[in-house]
Amino acid sequence: MTPKHQRPLRDGHRLAPGTRLALEFYVEDRVLEGVWLNRRTVIPQLGELGLDLVLSPNVPNLSS
């Protein structure tokens, strides 16, 4: 990760305090699978970002 990405999100991207933040998981399946496999770590980290909105596709369980 670059130094920019190691700083708090608003600081690293020079966002105003009132700027609303959203994260959309429109990514390759492999990336989304990695997030899901590591969800016990990733979800608390996402909570620390202070996001106003997180969007993610509904991934059906195809193995059943």
Kindly summarize this structure in a few lines:
The protein has 64 residues and is mostly helical. The protein is built from four helices and two strands; from the N terminus they run ααβααβ.
Write the layout of secondary structure elements.
Elements (H helix, E strand, L loop, with lengths): L2 H4 L2 H4 L9 E3 L4 H9 L1 H10 L4 E3 L9
Parallel strand pairs: 1-2
Write the H/E string, N to C.
HHEHHE
Poorly predicted runs of 5 or more residues: none
**Domains, number:** 1
Structural class: mainly alpha
- Integer-rounded radius of gyration: 14 Å
End-to-end C-alpha gap: 37 Å
Helix content: 40-55%
Largest beta sheet: strand ordering: 1-2
Notes on the structure:
With 64 residues, the chain is mostly helical. It has one domain (20-64). The chain has 4 helices and 2 strands. The protein has helices at 3-6, 9-12, 29-37, 39-48; strands at 22-24, 53-55. It has a two-stranded parallel ribbon. The mean pLDDT is 79.
Jot down its keywords.
64 residues, mainly alpha, 42% helix, two-stranded parallel ribbon
